[in-house]
Write the structure tokens for this entry.
Amino acid sequence: MSLEVTVAAPFRHLHKGQLQRSEFVYYLAIDRMWMSRDQAGLLLDLAVEQGLVDLRNGVVVPLFEVGEVTVPLGYRPGAEDFQRPDAERTLLARIAAATGRDEREVAAEANRLITERFDGQLRSKAALVLLARRHEVPFDDLLAALRDALLSE
């Protein structure tokens, strides 16, 4: 996961267990020149949303073991660091992993559910939620993102 590597880099390079928000942004934007200060702030917000770090009174605290992340020599973050993970793809992958099937098979099952049981009047996100319930796959953490994606369509 590239976002995890980008977030771990300042902690590893500066040998600190926590950083001031300004130190974190400075490292990404000024020290490494990987991005602008605004982008570094957005990246930090995304890292908080994804549960990689906690922001407590202006202090950035990692919520994962930074020492276990390898920052490759010459590493530069890419555009994918700023993208939020797709909740639908995440749920599809969870169902596939829980059932031991390929993602294409799960997608086909969702499509059959849509056409056979709902006459094509059900969105794929909703079909995946129904499949997750059927296979007892946890999805509560994805509900808000799935709902937002449905409302934006």
About this structure: The chain has seven helices and three strands. Residues 87-152 form one domain.
